[in-house]
Specification:
The structure is a single chain. The chain has 4 helices and 12 strands, in the order αβββββββαβαββαββ. The chain is an alpha+beta fold. It has a single domain, classed as YwqG-like (Hypothetical protein YwqG fold), CATH 2.30.320. The strands form 2 sheets. Strands 7-6-5-2-8-1-9-10-11-12 form a 10-stranded antiparallel beta sheet. It is globular. Pfam families: DUF1963 (PF09234). This is DUF1963 domain-containing protein. InterPro entries: DUF1963, YwqG-like_sf.
Protein backbone atom coordinates (compact mmCIF):
# COMPACT_ATOMS: atom_id res chain seq x y z
CA UNK A 1 0.00 0.00 0.00
CA UNK A 2 1.11 3.59 -0.45
CA UNK A 3 2.27 5.83 2.36
CA UNK A 4 -0.35 8.00 4.03
CA UNK A 5 0.46 11.55 5.08
CA UNK A 6 -0.31 13.04 8.46
CA UNK A 7 -3.67 14.85 8.37
CA UNK A 8 -3.24 18.52 7.52
CA UNK A 9 -5.06 20.83 9.94
CA UNK A 10 -5.75 24.51 9.25
CA UNK A 11 -2.99 26.35 11.15
CA UNK A 12 -5.43 28.87 12.58
CA UNK A 13 -7.97 26.23 13.63
CA UNK A 14 -7.77 26.75 17.40
CA UNK A 15 -7.42 30.51 16.97
CA UNK A 16 -10.61 30.73 14.96
CA UNK A 17 -12.41 28.02 16.95
CA UNK A 18 -11.02 28.09 20.53
CA UNK A 19 -13.85 25.82 21.68
CA UNK A 20 -11.99 22.92 20.05
CA UNK A 21 -8.73 23.39 21.99
CA UNK A 22 -9.80 21.56 25.19
CA UNK A 23 -11.17 18.69 23.08
CA UNK A 24 -7.91 18.06 21.19
CA UNK A 25 -6.23 14.68 21.64
CA UNK A 26 -2.95 13.23 20.45
CA UNK A 27 -3.31 10.06 18.42
CA UNK A 28 -0.51 7.78 17.25
CA UNK A 29 -1.02 7.07 13.57
CA UNK A 30 0.23 3.65 12.49
CA UNK A 31 1.50 4.82 9.13
CA UNK A 32 2.99 2.66 6.43
CA UNK A 33 6.76 2.19 6.19
CA UNK A 34 7.33 2.71 2.46
CA UNK A 35 9.99 0.97 0.40
CA UNK A 36 10.91 -1.48 3.17
CA UNK A 37 12.30 -4.73 1.75
CA UNK A 38 10.72 -7.98 2.85
CA UNK A 39 7.55 -8.83 4.71
CA UNK A 40 7.08 -8.03 8.39
CA UNK A 41 8.24 -10.69 10.84
CA UNK A 42 6.96 -11.73 14.29
CA UNK A 43 9.58 -9.35 15.73
CA UNK A 44 7.89 -6.34 14.10
CA UNK A 45 5.00 -4.14 15.03
CA UNK A 46 2.70 -4.63 12.08
CA UNK A 47 -0.76 -4.57 10.59
CA UNK A 48 -1.69 -7.96 9.16
CA UNK A 49 1.80 -9.39 9.73
CA UNK A 50 2.83 -12.63 11.47
CA UNK A 51 2.42 -12.66 15.24
CA UNK A 52 4.76 -13.65 18.04
CA UNK A 53 2.43 -16.49 18.96
CA UNK A 54 3.30 -19.11 21.61
CA UNK A 55 4.11 -22.51 20.10
CA UNK A 56 2.17 -24.28 22.84
CA UNK A 57 -1.00 -22.25 22.22
CA UNK A 58 -3.11 -23.51 19.30
CA UNK A 59 -3.94 -20.92 16.68
CA UNK A 60 -7.55 -19.84 17.23
CA UNK A 61 -10.36 -20.94 14.96
CA UNK A 62 -13.84 -19.45 14.87
CA UNK A 63 -16.43 -22.15 15.40
CA UNK A 64 -19.53 -19.97 15.65
CA UNK A 65 -22.41 -21.17 13.47
CA UNK A 66 -23.58 -17.76 12.27
CA UNK A 67 -20.99 -16.84 9.64
CA UNK A 68 -22.16 -14.92 6.63
CA UNK A 69 -21.09 -16.17 3.21
CA UNK A 70 -18.11 -14.39 1.66
CA UNK A 71 -18.77 -13.07 -1.85
CA UNK A 72 -19.06 -14.69 -4.38
CA UNK A 73 -19.95 -17.78 -2.35
CA UNK A 74 -23.62 -18.54 -1.81
CA UNK A 75 -23.33 -20.26 1.55
CA UNK A 76 -21.02 -19.91 4.57
CA UNK A 77 -18.56 -22.62 5.62
CA UNK A 78 -20.04 -25.36 7.79
CA UNK A 79 -16.85 -25.88 9.80
CA UNK A 80 -14.52 -23.83 12.04
CA UNK A 81 -12.34 -21.33 10.15
CA UNK A 82 -8.88 -19.97 11.03
CA UNK A 83 -8.72 -16.42 12.31
CA UNK A 84 -6.36 -13.89 10.70
CA UNK A 85 -3.75 -11.60 12.24
CA UNK A 86 -4.89 -7.99 12.35
CA UNK A 87 -2.57 -6.04 14.68
CA UNK A 88 0.67 -6.56 16.60
CA UNK A 89 2.21 -3.67 18.54
CA UNK A 90 5.29 -3.72 20.76
CA UNK A 91 5.72 -1.42 23.75
CA UNK A 92 9.04 -0.12 22.41
CA UNK A 93 7.20 1.15 19.31
CA UNK A 94 3.96 2.37 20.89
CA UNK A 95 4.66 2.94 24.62
CA UNK A 96 1.47 4.97 25.06
CA UNK A 97 -0.63 1.80 24.95
CA UNK A 98 -1.88 0.81 28.44
CA UNK A 99 0.10 -2.43 28.67
CA UNK A 100 -0.87 -4.52 31.71
CA UNK A 101 2.04 -5.03 34.09
CA UNK A 102 4.50 -7.61 32.78
CA UNK A 103 3.37 -7.38 29.14
CA UNK A 104 4.92 -5.62 26.18
CA UNK A 105 3.06 -6.93 23.11
CA UNK A 106 -0.53 -6.30 22.03
CA UNK A 107 -2.08 -8.69 19.50
CA UNK A 108 -5.47 -8.61 17.81
CA UNK A 109 -6.82 -11.36 15.58
CA UNK A 110 -10.26 -11.74 14.07
CA UNK A 111 -12.44 -14.06 12.08
CA UNK A 112 -12.49 -12.47 8.63
CA UNK A 113 -16.13 -13.31 7.97
CA UNK A 114 -19.16 -11.28 8.96
CA UNK A 115 -21.23 -12.62 11.84
CA UNK A 116 -24.91 -12.10 12.40
CA UNK A 117 -24.61 -11.00 16.01
CA UNK A 118 -27.39 -9.14 17.84
CA UNK A 119 -25.26 -6.01 18.37
CA UNK A 120 -22.65 -6.06 15.62
CA UNK A 121 -22.74 -7.37 12.05
CA UNK A 122 -18.98 -7.64 11.84
CA UNK A 123 -15.86 -9.78 12.06
CA UNK A 124 -15.32 -11.06 15.61
CA UNK A 125 -11.96 -10.04 17.13
CA UNK A 126 -9.93 -11.34 20.06
CA UNK A 127 -7.29 -9.36 21.97
CA UNK A 128 -4.16 -10.61 23.73
CA UNK A 129 -1.46 -8.94 25.86
CA UNK A 130 1.80 -10.91 26.01
CA UNK A 131 5.37 -10.82 27.30
CA UNK A 132 7.68 -11.14 24.30
CA UNK A 133 10.64 -12.58 26.23
CA UNK A 134 8.53 -15.35 27.72
CA UNK A 135 7.04 -16.26 24.35
CA UNK A 136 10.46 -16.43 22.70
CA UNK A 137 11.86 -18.52 25.56
CA UNK A 138 9.05 -21.07 25.25
CA UNK A 139 9.04 -21.12 21.44
CA UNK A 140 7.15 -19.29 18.69
CA UNK A 141 4.47 -20.90 16.53
CA UNK A 142 5.75 -21.01 12.94
CA UNK A 143 2.99 -23.02 11.28
CA UNK A 144 -0.01 -20.70 11.34
CA UNK A 145 -3.05 -21.95 9.39
CA UNK A 146 -4.45 -19.61 6.77
CA UNK A 147 -8.13 -19.49 5.82
CA UNK A 148 -8.94 -21.16 2.52
CA UNK A 149 -11.16 -19.83 -0.25
CA UNK A 150 -14.62 -19.19 1.16
CA UNK A 151 -13.32 -19.00 4.75
CA UNK A 152 -12.63 -15.26 4.66
CA UNK A 153 -13.97 -12.04 3.22
CA UNK A 154 -11.15 -10.11 1.54
CA UNK A 155 -12.74 -6.88 2.81
CA UNK A 156 -11.41 -7.85 6.25
CA UNK A 157 -7.92 -9.21 5.52
CA UNK A 158 -5.29 -6.47 5.91
CA UNK A 159 -2.26 -6.34 3.64
CA UNK A 160 0.78 -7.16 5.83
CA UNK A 161 2.95 -4.14 6.57
CA UNK A 162 5.23 -2.68 9.19
CA UNK A 163 4.14 0.49 10.95
CA UNK A 164 5.69 3.89 11.53
CA UNK A 165 4.11 5.32 14.70
CA UNK A 166 3.59 9.04 14.16
CA UNK A 167 1.96 11.54 16.52
CA UNK A 168 -0.90 13.69 15.25
CA UNK A 169 -3.22 16.19 16.92
CA UNK A 170 -6.88 15.61 16.22
CA UNK A 171 -10.40 16.61 17.24
CA UNK A 172 -13.69 14.74 17.60
CA UNK A 173 -15.93 14.35 14.59
CA UNK A 174 -19.29 12.89 15.59
CA UNK A 175 -18.31 12.94 19.27
CA UNK A 176 -18.43 16.75 19.15
CA UNK A 177 -21.23 17.84 21.53
CA UNK A 178 -24.26 19.22 19.71
CA UNK A 179 -24.22 22.54 21.56
CA UNK A 180 -20.62 23.13 20.48
CA UNK A 181 -21.35 22.04 16.92
CA UNK A 182 -24.21 24.54 16.66
CA UNK A 183 -22.08 27.36 18.08
CA UNK A 184 -19.01 26.85 15.89
CA UNK A 185 -20.50 25.63 12.62
CA UNK A 186 -20.34 28.92 10.66
CA UNK A 187 -16.63 29.20 11.55
CA UNK A 188 -16.07 25.54 10.61
CA UNK A 189 -17.60 26.14 7.19
CA UNK A 190 -15.41 29.21 6.70
CA UNK A 191 -12.27 27.19 7.46
CA UNK A 192 -13.41 24.37 5.20
CA UNK A 193 -13.86 26.80 2.31
CA UNK A 194 -10.56 28.58 2.96
CA UNK A 195 -8.46 25.40 3.14
CA UNK A 196 -10.45 23.02 0.90
CA UNK A 197 -10.88 20.59 3.78
CA UNK A 198 -13.70 19.00 5.77
CA UNK A 199 -14.14 18.94 9.53
CA UNK A 200 -14.43 15.13 9.48
CA UNK A 201 -10.78 15.03 8.36
CA UNK A 202 -9.75 16.78 11.58
CA UNK A 203 -10.29 13.41 13.25
CA UNK A 204 -7.64 11.16 11.72
CA UNK A 205 -9.17 8.50 9.47
CA UNK A 206 -6.07 6.30 9.54
CA UNK A 207 -5.41 3.22 11.59
CA UNK A 208 -4.26 4.67 14.91
CA UNK A 209 -3.78 4.28 18.65
CA UNK A 210 -5.64 6.62 20.98
CA UNK A 211 -7.38 9.80 19.93
CA UNK A 212 -11.02 9.60 18.89
CA UNK A 213 -12.84 6.97 16.86
CA UNK A 214 -13.43 8.41 13.38
CA UNK A 215 -17.04 7.27 13.44
CA UNK A 216 -18.90 6.89 10.14
CA UNK A 217 -22.17 6.48 12.05
CA UNK A 218 -23.42 8.03 15.33
CA UNK A 219 -21.05 7.32 18.26
CA UNK A 220 -21.59 4.08 20.14
CA UNK A 221 -19.20 4.01 23.10
CA UNK A 222 -19.31 0.77 25.14
CA UNK A 223 -19.38 0.37 28.92
CA UNK A 224 -17.64 -2.45 30.75
CA UNK A 225 -19.53 -4.90 32.97
CA UNK A 226 -19.03 -2.53 35.92
CA UNK A 227 -20.61 0.34 33.95
CA UNK A 228 -17.34 2.21 33.39
CA UNK A 229 -17.22 3.99 30.07
CA UNK A 230 -14.45 2.28 28.15
CA UNK A 231 -11.51 4.10 26.56
CA UNK A 232 -10.72 4.13 22.86
CA UNK A 233 -7.63 1.95 22.47
CA UNK A 234 -7.12 1.86 18.70
CA UNK A 235 -8.85 1.83 15.34
CA UNK A 236 -8.22 -0.29 12.26
CA UNK A 237 -9.76 1.35 9.23
CA UNK A 238 -10.45 0.77 5.57
CA UNK A 239 -7.16 2.52 4.79
CA UNK A 240 -5.53 -0.93 5.10
CA UNK A 241 -6.32 -1.96 1.50
CA UNK A 242 -9.60 -3.30 2.88
CA UNK A 243 -13.06 -1.99 2.13
CA UNK A 244 -14.41 -3.16 5.50
CA UNK A 245 -17.90 -3.06 4.06
CA UNK A 246 -17.73 0.46 2.65
CA UNK A 247 -14.52 2.09 3.90
CA UNK A 248 -15.49 1.47 7.50
CA UNK A 249 -13.53 0.83 10.66
CA UNK A 250 -13.11 -1.48 13.63
CA UNK A 251 -12.84 0.49 16.87
CA UNK A 252 -11.38 -1.18 19.96
CA UNK A 253 -12.06 -0.11 23.54
CA UNK A 254 -10.63 -1.20 26.89
CA UNK A 255 -11.25 -0.62 30.58
CA UNK A 256 -7.82 -0.28 32.27
CA UNK A 257 -9.57 0.29 35.60
CA UNK A 258 -10.83 -3.31 35.58
CA UNK A 259 -7.57 -4.98 34.55
CA UNK A 260 -6.79 -8.23 36.39
CA UNK A 261 -3.29 -9.54 35.75
CA UNK A 262 -2.86 -9.54 31.98
CA UNK A 263 -6.61 -9.59 31.35
CA UNK A 264 -8.06 -6.22 30.40
CA UNK A 265 -11.77 -6.00 29.52
CA UNK A 266 -12.23 -5.02 25.88
CA UNK A 267 -15.02 -4.37 23.44
CA UNK A 268 -15.26 -3.37 19.81
CA UNK A 269 -17.51 -1.49 17.48
CA UNK A 270 -17.73 -1.66 13.70
CA UNK A 271 -19.31 0.79 11.32
CA UNK A 272 -19.12 1.80 7.68
CA UNK A 273 -20.56 4.41 5.35
Amino acid sequence: MSDIDIPSLPPELEWDIPELAPLARTATLLLNVPDTPGEPTPADSSIGGPLLWPADEPWPYCDLPNHDAAWPHKSPPDHPVPTVAAVQLYAHDVPELPFPEGTDVLQIIWCALLHEEPDEYAPLPRMYWRNAERVRAAGVLDDVPAPAEGEYDEDFVPTPRRVRPTKAREYPNQDLPREITDAIWPRVEALEARHDTYYTEWCALQTKVGGYPAWCQPPNWPDCEKSHRMEHLLSVTGEEDMMMGDCGGMYFFVCPECTTGTEMPYAFRYDCH
